[in-house]
Amino acid sequence: YGWMRDESRANRTVLDHLHAENEYREQMTRHLNETHEELYQEFLSSIHETDYTTPVAKGSFWYYSRYEEGVSYPRTEDGTSLQPLLPGEEVYLDVPLLAQNKTYLAVGVIAVSPNEEYIAYSLDLTGRETCLLFIRNIATGEEWILYDTTSDERRVMEAEGSIVWNNDSTAIFYVTLDKTHRPYRVYYRKLFCSEGSYIALKLQSDELLLEERDGLFSVHISTTFDGKYLLVSSSSKESSEIHYLDLHDSQPDATTPLVCIAKRKPNALYRATHCNGWWLIQTKENTPNFRLKASRVGASSNMTNWKDVVLKSKGISLFDGGEQRSLGATSSLAISKATRLEFDEPAFDVGIGGNRDDTLPYVVIAYDSLITPLSHIAIPLANPSDLDRRRVMKEEAVPGYDKSLYACERTTARSRDGKTEIPVSLVYRLDSLQKQSFGDGIPTHLYGYGSYGACIEASFRATRLPLLNRGIVYAIAHVRGGGEMGRPWYESAKYLCKRNSFDDFVDVARWLTCAIKSSDSSSVGEGITVPSKLSCEGRSAGGLLIGASINQAPELFKAAILGVPFVDVACTMCDQSLPLTITEWEEWGNPNEEYYFEYMMSYCPMQNVQREAVYPSCLITGGLYDPRVQYWEPAKFAGELRHSTSEESGVVLLKMDMEAGHFSASDRYKYLRELAFDYSFLLDELGLLIGTT
């Protein structure tokens, strides 16, 4: 299948093949057109097409985005076509206007200048995750695009997308990419002369502040929560190193030193933020999960000098696996009180919300569950446990949704090793369980990911309702390789243990389809379905999970959706010219070492399709401009499935988006239509082409 690879995306033979695949898919699913449209309309009926995000306070303003019915992208309004959400509303970026006559547009970063007069923002116009950078005067709408000052030609600059302003709003910091799409250089560009007029063209070269030469590491920039420091993080999957620069120094140059918080060490990831002269540091060094430590700004760049942050009342160290907000001075390196926020649902998702002003008397959290729509809640810092003092700032409205009709739970399935309990989240309509008594199983859809330590949260999705309303149980397998159970859970399924992810997913599928429940089980999930009514889905590295799982046990599934699937692991990891390959070696292993190569070959989906086996029906998606999973991976896998499996196997369909990258359509309506197609495929395969219950 090597002929399918064309990095120019211009080879006529390859493009004709991809168009032929799309035409074949359309022919094979023409009978689903009515269901496709029905699902799309259901999606629209379950969302407020005119809506806004939760306002976030920063400086003199509240910032938010809003959508209008029929408009594909968010924007802020000036009150001319809609009533202002808040008094004095101003438009600072009109994305629908920017998106006119474009097939793809994704906003990378929007950074408001400290003087609140300008915004710097980045746009991806291809799906390749390469951005153009712009500066805009908020009051006048005047705008400039940044040009590449490293070239003698007048060429628009392409960058990674992150932007940070200096303290006096006269310059920005940004990151550029190398030939393999790795963020590796941090530049400083002065934008205004002393009179405040914009310098649009090259007057002098940008100042290079840092270059990361190790191909395992990528560079990212951000500011500390208080806006005092620029943070430049060089990180791999296993190690990190953070430098900082005082943003009050408005004119850094190549001689301006970036100060290192701590030099990189093997197996020593860390993150940092600033609070009253201290670095608050989350570190993985010498602990299975992250520990919270502190170090004085300007102290020696040695991790041994870091001090534990302790809870005064109990004398114990604080551990933290997520985000934090500074709650005051830490001169004693101790916190007098820590409050755990309790929630009563069995499977939920909670995190830090939009907090940009640490002088406010509350912190905003975001809460949802598999059956509870997203809410942003203000928690008073003086009385965080007082439920009466909590204030819901905004709750996602879902027209026609009745929470009492649904249930969710968190349970576990035992792995084949007899000792590992795999978490499983379930959501379903209560009346769908009544069908279990018939003994023929309830249609079930199993989702998974299981890589990079990422968590598949038990969050609410209004677009899931059409499946639940047709009697489907939606299950999430939190397999090893994810981060749901902490860092050790992730590390137990990477490198030479990666097959644990696939074994876990297959074991959950067997648990869902087992004919006889274990005597001590009271779970809804165990034995709830049969293989002819079980479908599965995963995206990107989750597509690898699905590909490897259907290779291992094709008889367990009726249908599978593989979204932009990473299914040619061995070939991709051997090709250092491809984006992300070298940086991924600390996830999958370096195939230049024989034992890693042989292990990859043992699970790589492209290399392990069972010849003449009966496989489930497969819908495989890809994006022509995807820089993470090159389009030829899903195209090759579709061909291999058709070539090698039994003629009794289900249909293999390839849906190639000829205008997008890894993250599918940027147009929200186009995205919903694509999702409606995927779900119509599932309903057809599971025998559920009927109206809602």
UniProtKB/TrEMBL annotation:
One of its GO terms (biological process) is proteolysis. Residues 459-687 form the Peptidase S9 prolyl oligopeptidase catalytic domain. Keywords: Hydrolase, Protease, Serine protease. InterPro entries: AB_hydrolase_fold, Pept_S9A_N, Peptidase_S9_cat, Peptidase_S9A, Serine_Peptidase_S9A. Serine peptidase whose precise substrate specificity remains unclear. Does not cleave peptides after a arginine or lysine residue. Regulates trans-Golgi network morphology and sorting by regulating the membrane binding of the AP-1 complex. May play a role in the regulation of synaptic vesicle exocytosis. The lineage of its organism: Eukaryota, Sar, Stramenopiles, Ochrophyta, Bacillariophyta. Residues 1-314 form the Peptidase S9A N-terminal domain. GO terms for molecular function: serine-type endopeptidase activity. It comes from Thalassiosira pseudonana. It holds the Pfam family Peptidase_S9. SUPFAM superfamilies: alpha/beta-Hydrolases, Peptidase/esterase 'gauge' domain. Belongs to the peptidase S9A family. This is Prolyl endopeptidase. Its EC number is 3.4.21.-.
